[in-house]
Amino acid sequence: MSEKLLMKGNEALAEAALKAGCQLYFAYPITPQSEIPEYLARRMPELGRVFLQAESEISAINMVFGAAGAGARVMTSSSSPGISLKQEGISYIAGAELPCVIVNMSRGGPGLGGIQPAQSDYFQATKGGGHGDYRLIVLAPSSVQEIVDLTILAFDLADKYRNPVMIMGDGLLGQMMEPVSFPDRSDVELPEKPWATTGYKGDRPRNVIKSLELLPERLEAHNLKLQEKYADIAATQKRSEEYLTDDAEIILVAYGTVARICRSAIDMARKKGIKAGLFRPITLWPFPDKTLASLADKERVFLTVEMSCGQMVEDVKLAIECRRPVYFFSRVGGIVPSPEEVLAEIEKRVAGRCNA
Amino acid sequence: MKLVFDRPRALADVQTHYCPGCTHGIIHRLVAEAIDELEVADRTIGVASVGCSALNTKYFNLDYQEAAHGRAPAVATGIKRALPDSVVYTYQGDGDLASIGTAEIVHAANRGEAITVIYVNNAIYGMTGGQMAPTTMPGQKTSTSPYGRDVELVGYPIRMAELLSTLVAPQYIVRVAVNSPANIRKAKRAIKKAFEIQVNNNGFALVEVLSTCPTNWGLSPEKALEWLEENMIPYYPLGEYKVPEEVE
Do B67 and A65 touch (CB under 8 A)? Predict the structure, then answer.
């Protein structure tokens, strides 16, 4: 690990991508992620790497397609409306099984919405977004250090599974400054990519990067192969963190920025004698359902807190299979819930339980 | 016996799906000959588009990528920027390049991206069954312009070679046709030059190739060649629109 640096989330993400060996980055400006392209526009030419500002988010993601197909480590980043524009390309990338990293520093929607933090792109990120049966690996950091760690992991997972990986942050995480350190990656060898289109020299079969398959039997077989891969990812890559869950009578479920606020609310609740805890999914897909389900073995209630009108809460209910009550609290439109608001909700649900 | 005519090495020995009389086959051959003659097949990556040319990933003995509709110049940009020593070309139809892909082609050209673009203009959407394209001729009947293209409603056919030649960065922009042996020879020279511009000059080059679609035009292959000569060439004049000074 290097020395500690004080960095903005967006800039730490950009530097982490460089540490992970990102050779090309394709940009398009949008708030609140523009520090990522601005940082990389300065740094990548210094390192002899490729920074290119595309004419649109659509072109940026298709440049990612080309570069990923050519075997390079490549990234693009945007925020909610721009991520919507990238969905066509993401579907093609998933279909052609290309590794790449896509960052969504999400903001409030729908439509142009606002520029303040939100978590209302959860469905888009975890349930599809583009057309066809495919999955992204979705990583949700909740601190600047975790942005660094998960960005590096994102590149490794993308290559390992030949699959696009999304880093799901929000405007707050992107803008805030925290101390971070970067791992030394100088000895890390990147995997070979014998499937990449680097020019056909006759010493291997021709490499063709495509998602087109007009024969239904072959397209079905391709889909089943993708599903096997997703099952493998789901079996091995679920990640989550728990805070004071052992004795908790109420477990909050939250990710990213909101998980930090929930932690503060839990500390306040504990001081008042309420046994509250936190379950924080780190992978939004695959969702850490089994670990969450095991927490429902004890009698307790769950409170999902999101900056959306109710998206992850569906996965929480599916994981718990209605064995325990699952409540929901949210602020939306770019409003970040305060610890006091969350504490009030904890007190309401715990009191409601005692009264029942 | 001396072999005087053979399949170019860059052209795969497979049957294509193209309709009888379609000129895609000729254009494929010219592209493959240019790649053979420049001896760059082992570092060439083709980019297919959406339309009849979507399947040309199968027809060339080259590494290939298939792009989403209109996005081939962006995909080609990604490949070329990742592998600067490679030779990258897109092969796009008029629906792909001149309609849905206008942003991608304009900006790849404007950046002077070192790629070669083969732009096949047959004035119609072929793969989807003969709908009106931005290049469809005034009055031309298609399945979505059953009364003929009405320029008052949908405007005039778009001349991409002229439009792109107003940009500073592109080095070579040319329009050719493949309707006669003489024009096919000129098309061959233009396609080879467009690859040379990339290989020797690191520049952007685009060859617009006027092509036929007998099936969707409702004409015999021979009549289709005549229709191209009589209707398309007067509106889409052949010739070089932009030439680099040092290659002139």
Answer: yes
